[in-house]
Amino acid sequence: MKRYVEHVMGMPISLALRGRHTCDDLARSAWAAVMDQLREADRVFSTYRPDSFISRLGRGEIGVGQCPPEVAEVLALGERAEHESGGAFRITRPGQVLDPSGVVKGWAAERAARHLRALPATDFCLSAGGDLVCRTLDPAAEPWRIGIEHPHDPRRLIATVPVFAGAVATSGAAHRGAHLVDARTGLAPASVASVTVVAQSLTWADIDATAAYAHGEDAADWLRTRSGRSGLVVWQDGSTTLV
């Protein structure tokens, strides 16, 4: 097995490869393509860069038609997520500040993973800030084992999830404080500590983890309505609910 690590979009990006192509030119080329695509996503979508397309769009300096087509795609995902979450998830912050970060991380990593899917006879596990997309080609092989941090003590794991092919995303306040809010109220949920979602798509695992977290005490009930998802809700009192 070979591991690669770099930083972009304000977070660590790590890759584990196993199989035919792990440290040859094909593997290194795929890893470089992954990082190039994530750097481009940062250039377009970073809310910390005043020259990014999303920052300029948010300030009204340009329209969607003047942006790369990926911007319209992400905005459409945000609208769909808002509708399907009943308004708990929204890509605008209080004051109508455009911030599609809750969509972009999972979406960008999912798109970048296509370079890894092109590697013949090679399994991969790509992590973007702790949200992961994995592939195991041989059903008789060992799955990737994804550790879920305890939200009250990130040095410990609260669960381990075996994944053959799919995605795992976790949302919570352990690392960045109370930055996630219920868009319907503008308030941070008080009863939930973290939500982990397992799905086929990292785009939707990430969105649904954030949306479920925003639902607070209704996190598990809302997540049960999401077809093709499973998950773990960790409550503030340390108890857990499997979905």
Mean pLDDT: 94
Strand order of the largest sheet: 1-2-5-6-9-10-11-12
Helix content: 25-40%
Oligomer: single chain
Specify the overall morphology. Answer: globular
Q: What is the count of DSSP helices, taking H or I runs of 4+ residues?
A: 7
* Head-to-tail CA distance between termini: 32 Å
- Strand fraction: 25-35%
Report the radius of gyration as a whole number of Å.
18 Å
* Secondary-structure element string: EEHHHEEHHEEEEEEHHEE
What structural category characterises the helix and strand content? alpha+beta
List the uncertain runs.
none
Largest sheet descriptor: 8 strands, antiparallel
Number of strands: 12
Structural write-up:
The protein is α+β, with helices and mostly antiparallel strands and 243 residues long. Helix content is 32%, strand content 31%. It contains seven helices and twelve strands. The chain has helices at 25-45, 53-58, 69-84, 101-112, 114-117, 202-214, 219-223, and strands at 2-8, 11-19, 92-93, 97-98, 122-128, 131-135, 144-150, 153-163, 165-172, 192-199, 230-235, 240-242. The strands form three sheets. The protein has an eight-stranded antiparallel β-sheet. Strand 1 (2-8) and strand 2 form a beta hairpin. Helix 1 (25-45) runs antiparallel to helix 4 (101-112). It is globular and about 50 Å long. The mean pLDDT is 94.
